[in-house]
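QA checklist item 7 of 12: single-chain prediction sanity check.
[x] sequence parsed
[x] length recorded as 392
[x] structure emitted
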Amino acid sequence: MPTSLLFTLMITIIIDVMGLGLVLPILPNLVVASNSPFYGNHAVFFYGLVLSVWSLGGFFGSPFLGSFSDKIGRKKILITSLSGNAIVYALTAFSIFQKFFWLFIFLRFCSGFFSGSFEIAQAAVADKSTHLEKAKNMSFMNLAFAFGFIIGPLLSSLTVSFGIIIPFLMAAGLSCLNVFFLSVFFSETHVRKECRIVWSSLFTSFTFIFRDPRVRNLGLVFLLFQCAWGFYFQAIPLVLQEKYYFTPKDISYFFILLGVGLAFVPLFLQKFMMRYFSLQKISFMGLVISGIFISLSFLLQFFIGVQWIVALGFPIFESLAFGSLLAMLSNRVSNEEQGKMMGGCGALYAISFIFIGLSIGVFSSFSIWVPIIVSAIFFFVSGSLLQVVVKK
């Protein structure tokens, strides 16, 4: 795979994820904090709603945009999705300023719909990678995600003191910068074939991963894995605020450490693991050890330092599992189906986050630690199921 293309895709993901990283640490402060613009009765439920509608948008958007990119090329769809997100971020700042909660909810759905750029970038990587290279090259996409997740929360911690809408405005500006960067430097990776676009099939393309026997069972493992990661990812800001009284700036630093853990794998660990272990073994180890880390987060909750250790160690093994599972899924379909495949994975991610967003308020009403426990359970179950699928 050309180094220049890999670098361009990494920059695209870094800038895009920076926008998400700018916004995520301040979401609890938007809804749950007593001085927030949208605070009211059932604040924890609305926090879950804010998270789930973003995922609902991704459920439809990721497979639609991914399948569409198979038809007309990756570049046009990447530029379209990033332009849409720039507009949405700017309007979201307006909705917060005017305290229009339901407009804010609708815009979170739109943001989720246009969030498929990560999956399309992965499809572009698959276009230019051999079977043996895919796991390694996919790990560089994870590295870009990690860098974006380090820089985004860092900028959020520096700008939120000037006003809660400033991170959204910065995210809009970053999306505009990304559109310009892609327009100038990105070269199309997918050889398009002349074919008629069946619009109804694009809207139902999220069912591909459930219907196709090549990927159905492994797709179930990936879905459970996304549930495991999502429960921790979405619940930990609430835990940090309610249990340890973290400020938005403190939560930003916590997410920066998560990003450092994600960056460790492609920089130092991926090459070593690929040399000595198969994709299946790497995935299994990543899932099980991730479950152990999340269990420690709950069992040793009275030691705040454990949360920081988990934030650094857990993403290392989560990233190993993610890259290996994604490469295994990609290897099971043809080159003409990579966009559809990655879009289907995006749909699985979205399904898990919809379920989590709707249930996290219910679980948290019993204890804010229940979602963390559920996360650990899902990691162990997905690891066990992977062993069954591989044997079959």
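[x] summary fact logged: DSSP finds 16 helices and no strands in the chain.
[ ] second reviewer sign-off
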